[in-house]
Known about the structure:
It is a single chain. By secondary structure, the protein is of the alpha/beta class. The protein folds into 2 domains: about 1-170 and about 355-390, Rossmann fold; about 175-355, Glycogen Phosphorylase B (Rossmann fold, 3-Layer(aba) Sandwich), CATH 3.40.50. Helices cover about 40% and strands about 20% of the residues. The chain contains 15 helices and 14 strands. The chain has helices spanning about 10-25, 40-45, 65-80, 90-100, 120-135, 145-150, 180-190, 210-220, 240-250, 265-270, 285-295, 305-310, 325-335, 340-355, 360-370, and strands at about 1-10, 30-35, 50-55, 85-90, 105-110, 140-145, 160-165, 200-205, 230-235, 255-260, 275, 300, 315-320, 385-390. The strands form 2 sheets. An 8-stranded parallel β-sheet has the order 7-6-5-4-1-2-3-14, sandwiched between helices. A 6-stranded parallel β-sheet has the order 10-9-8-11-12-13, with helices on both faces. Helix 3 packs across helix 4 (about 90-100), helix 8 (about 210-220) crosses helix 13 (about 325-335) and helix 11 (about 285-295) crosses helix 14 (about 340-355). The chain is globular. The relative contact order is 0.14.
Amino acid sequence: MKCLIVTTLERQVLLFLVPHIQLLQEMGYQITIATSIEDSDLLQEKLPNVSLQHISFSRKIQSVSNVHAFFQIKSLFRLESFDFVHVHSPIASFVTRLAAPSTIPIVYTAHGFHFNENGSKFSNQVFFLAEKFAGKKTQRLIVMNQEDYQKAQGILDSGNIHFIHGIGVDSNYYNPKNISQIDRVNMKQSLGIVQNKLVITHLAEFNENKRQMDIVNAAEQLKEVYEDFIILLVGDGELLDDIKREIAQRGLTEYVRCLGFRQDIRAILSITDVGLLVSLREGLPKSVMEMMAMEIPIVATDIRGNKELVLDGVNGLRIPIKSPHKLMNALSILLNQQDLREEMGAHGRREVLAKYDVKVILEKTRIVYESIQVNKPIKSGIRTEKIKTINHTD
C-alpha cells in the first residue's frame, strides 16, 4: 500500500508529522513525501524509509511557484499510484486537491482554517469558498479545535469530519522530571543568562501573525515594574531582522533576545518560567502543548485554538490580541507569584496527559486511516529513496 503525504514546507514535516508517518509505516504503507525540500539529508535521516519528491510550494498565496507546484503534483499523479493522499497546510492542500484525480481518496488535516474571527469579511469569504470547492475532493477532514469543527459542517458532511486534538505532543520527552537541575544550570550558562533571572519564552516564526512586536512593546513596559526577567524569542522568519533592530533601538537587549531557529527546544523550555503565544490566528498550537507538558504556565491571546488549550486562570492567562499593556500585566502577575506558576504548570501537564499526548492522538488518527474507502487496491512496487524533482514539462 502506498500513501502520499503533502505539505508546503519540509520543516512542517520535521516538526509535526514524523510520528504520523511512522504510524502509517506501521500500518504497512510505503510513504512518499511531497514538499518544498531544503535539506534532503536531514529529512532522509529523520525518515530513512520514505521517498521524497521536491515540489516548489510557496507559503505566499500569489507566488508563481504554486502554479509550478500544481503541474508538478499533477505530473506525480500521472507517474505514480497511491492508495490515498494526506494533505497538510492550506496552500499545499488546496493545490494538491485541485491537481489530484477524483478517484484518489484524500484526507485533509486543517491546522486552523484561514477564515477566522480576526480575518476580514472579504478574506474569510474567499478562504471559505476555496475550502468548500476543494472539499469536493476530500474524503476525510480532520480539524483540531471546536470552532473549526463547527465551521467544517459547511464544507463536508458531518460523518466525514473528525475532531482530533492536534497532532500530539510526546509527554515523555517533554517532561520536566526527565531533566536534571545541573542540565538547567548549564543551559542558562550556555545562553549567558544569570541563574536567578526568570525566563519567558515565545516559540514561533517571525511574521505578522505571531506578533513578536507586541512582546517587544510589553517588555519595554514590564522592565519598569519587574527587572529580573529575560524574554527568549525562538524562531526565524521574514520579520526577524526587523524585531532585532527594534530591540536594539529601544535598549532592550538585556531583556529580550532573539535565538533564531533552534533544535534544542526541550532544553530551552526546561529553564522557562512562563510561556507565551500572542498570535492573531492559530489552529491548535503545538508550542503551547509542549510548554504545558513541561509544566509551564502560559500567557496566550484569546483566539481560536489557544482558548481550548489555555484555561484562563487555571493553567495560564488569556489576553486580547494586539494588547501589549495587558500582556505586561499578565506577565507581571505570573512573575511575582511562584506558587501560582507552579499550580498552573501542574494543571497544564494534566491536561496534556488527558487529551493531547501523541499516543492518544495517533490512536484517533489510526481510526481515520482505517475508515478510508480505497477505490482500487494498489500493489506495492519497488520504490526509490532518491529525491526527485518533477518539472511541469514532464
